[in-house]
Amino acid sequence: MAKVRDFIGITNDILLARGVRLPLEGQSVVSSETRFNKGLELQKSIFGERIEQMHKNAPDNQKHIQRYLSANCFGDYQTRSGLNVKTRELITFSILVSLGGCESQVKSHIQGNANVGNNKDTLLAVVTQLLPFIGYPRTLNAIACLNEVIPEK
Length: 153
Description:
7 helices, AhpD-like, mainly alpha
């Protein structure tokens, strides 16, 4: 966490030097009452009705995870203003590829990216840019996922 503090301090210095007033305004557009429904609505707009099936078909002891995903990841974060859905989905893909071991989620977000207008060439360009930071194994895993979800023509 010490590096995070350093990063935030440097970032704030750069923003101030560029005339950005701090602290930045909040970007949240949901309340505790609306976060689940807004998150679920956004999930469906990206991934389609399979989200409804995910909620419906989850074992009873795992349904809370699906609710958390809709309310927290999508409701609290993905609905924020400041970035459009296409950009947020590309960032999500980048993070998942960088984490490694998330191939199931990488595949879902490849499809999500395609659904919001990010094509295979764009995703491959992102993976290429990440290569020096994530290494060849994660890069090759990402490309395998990409080729599985969006086969070459």
